[in-house]
Write a structure and sequence with these properties.
homodimer; two-stranded antiparallel sheet; 22 helices
Chain lengths: 403, 403
């Protein structure tokens, strides 16, 4: 490309980045306002519940999913009013899943603040997530008065499919961690990610936007294909970023996946490259549970049995006292768990085999595939518009976010 | 009533009891078969998830809710096929809420077996409950091909209302426990129970049965009123039974509500009757958390700090060793919690003020009100049939189950 054209392309791309940020901000504002109309704030009963339901949606987040619905609908010549309610519902679902995922993964931080279950306890977090899942049905039924029966029912079908894919993907991942499974291939991983991430973060938001704009099935199929590639690229990049980013920039603790024992392309690649001895070592580390609550930075709590032994060695505790303490069975609560040294060792092996680079390259291929689908099957049915430019900017964003 | 007529009435009532058991058994069979068609069992992905989704529904339980839908629909001259799918969905919702309630209440047993989160961990239990909530949408959409658009949409609306009432009721109860609230009146309690129990266990099953039979709004309103009284009676009786029944008979540990610090009419009555000193004592006991996992019968684990102190007193541990152990901050995990002695003391005061009898009498009044609504507003629109007899038998069952 000649210098002049390269510069012009870069300028257009930069303009699109600004556009994307601005567009995201506007959508987020609209969606949050709409979510506030879905979640009632009046009356004595339920007030506490509804306040907590707004916690995650009001935190600082891009609001990518509802934006995709809005941009897609508008680019396909649909109206904002036709899609706004559904977009808000998708954001509610997203936040409900985040709350429960955080419980399931024992995550500590979310969007720069402590996770809901750390603030209010697991019981409340489970209930609030349920409430968000349950309250999402009503606005989808109310869609009928806005966009008519046919599109409303298709959106209900799309959401039904989305939730099924999501829970299946999440179950698959939980199962791998729980049974220390290592018979996981790259293809298994991609399939899991398609179910866990692509369906509810990309495919369904795009398809719902398409349905709201009364797009035909050919167009909806293309949007599905586009969202699939984009979603897979996005999740692999998330894995990459979780080993690279700064905590402030990413809103999630560095190396969280390693603490949680999540199978990622990075880990799977490293395991394939590792020597038998290294592989053995890694499996042993990953089989260790996460340190219990508050324990990640509190090494002292992790191995109580060892502390008891040291007390005996130091002459602070008698053998009889040691036996009495052991009978408390505290080991079972605070037995061996992953330590920072373990996680550093995993990092070391990941670097040794350039596994992050490997995963980044795979993500690039999926992003390129998304670009191709967009160019050849999606963009053609869309009007030249800021909305189409925004979707193009999303593809570009996914292309370069982990460089 | 003359002796002869009393005997005849008793015989009819006994016959209805047998009828109820038989009818429940048949419905349960039908519903379980239908649930197995909703929960896919094929394919590699999701297999684990779907197996766990069937765990609670296959356990030994009456299946009261789907039976109410079926009996109500049939008594109103509707067909079995018109209601079966919705009945199965209500049973799925019920089991999903049970799984999450068990997590939220840290319950130990459910239907004679350990709770799902005890068998498979909290992460899996939360995911399985979500999956059951999410998979319930699809069959409600498929209703359209069986009973047509109008009734299907009304059932979706009814289910949407049901889930909202349930999560609000559950949130209210969790909030009372969490903030040690004692500004709870009997009316507050009844309102909470209406939301938490009556809507999803009685009102919605009956109303869904009515919609499937294309009943008019007057009839649906009467069913709502009937279900409300029945549900409130039922839950108060549950509270009574949890302090009276045998664990085998009730499938839940005796006194569970007291361990969990649940506000019940029984506890509220006792608090009103108690002296200032007793009230203070009760509030202190109820403010204590439940002993942590496995701890309910493992007194030794409950107060680790006290054990450390005893070790020092017994000369097994030095003062320095004590300080080192304290720094492990184990108190926060295993600090003071309710003990069996505490719960026995609550029982003692409950007996002193005859609070169980008080609650039982309130439940009787609600059951009588249910009977009246049934006789005056519901039964008249129903055909004389085994289905109507079964509904009558349910009212009688609720009347006498806690005697």
């Amino acid at each position: 490309m000649p210098h002049g054209r390269r510069l012009a392309a870069a300028a257009r791309s930069a303009a699109r980045t600004d556009l994307l940020d601005e567009y995201l901000g506007e959508c987020k504002e609209l969606v949050v306002q709409h979510i506030k109309t879905i979640i009632p704030s009046d009356g004595r009963y339920g007030t506490i519940l509804y306040r907590l339901m707004l916690d995650y949606p009001l935190r600082d987040a891009k609001g990518l999913r509802p934006m995709l619905s809005i941009a897609c609908c508008r680019a396909l010549r649909g109206k904002l009013e036709a899609v706004l309610r559904s977009a808000a519902v998708l954001e509610l679902y997203h936040n409900a899943f985040l709350i429960h995922d955080d419980v399931e993964d024992q995550s500590v931080m979310r969007r720069g603040r402590p996770t809901l279950h750390r603030l209010h306890g697991v019981p409340v977090a489970v209930n609030v997530g349920d409430a968000m899942l349950c309250l999402s049905l009503q606005p989808l039924l109310e869609n009928m008065s806005e966009i008519g029966l046919g599109p409303s029912l298709r959106i209900l079908q799309a959401v039904s499919r989305m939730t099924r894919e999501s829970v299946e993907g999440q179950a698959l991942e939980l199962d791998w961690v729980k049974r220390d499974a290592w018979d996981v291939t790259d293809d298994d991983y991609v399939r899991m990610v398609e179910q866990k991430t692509a369906w509810y973060s990309f495919i369904t938001p795009l398809v719902v936007g398409g349905i709201a704009a009364r797009a035909d099935n050919t167009c909806l199929d293309a949007l599905t294909e586009f969202g699939r590639s984009l979603g897979i690229a996005f999740q692999i990049q998330d894995d990459v970023l979780s080993l690279r980013g700064e905590p402030e920039a990413f809103g999630k603790e560095i190396g969280g996946d390693l603490w949680e024992g999540k199978r990622t392309l990075i880990l799977l690649h490293m395991m394939r490259c590792a020597s038998a001895a290294e592989r053995q070592e890694v499996e042993e580390i990953l089989a260790l549970p996460q340190p219990s609550r508050g324990g990640r930075n509190g090494a002292a709590r992790r191995d109580v049995g060892a502390v008891f032994k040291r007390l005996v060695n130091d002459g602070e505790l008698t053998a009889k006292g040691y036996r009495r303490l052991k009978r408390l069975n505290l080991d079972s609560i605070d037995g061996p768990a992953k330590t920072a040294a373990h996680v550093r060792r995993l990092f070391e092996l990941i670097n040794k085999y350039a596994s992050v680079q490997y995963a980044a390259a795979v993500a690039q291929r999926w992003a390129a595939s998304a670009q191709e689908v967009f160019d050849t099957k999606v963009a053609g049915s869309m009007a030249r518009s800021v909305h189409r430019d925004v979707l193009q900017a999303v593809v570009e964003y996914v292309h370069r976010r982990h460089r």
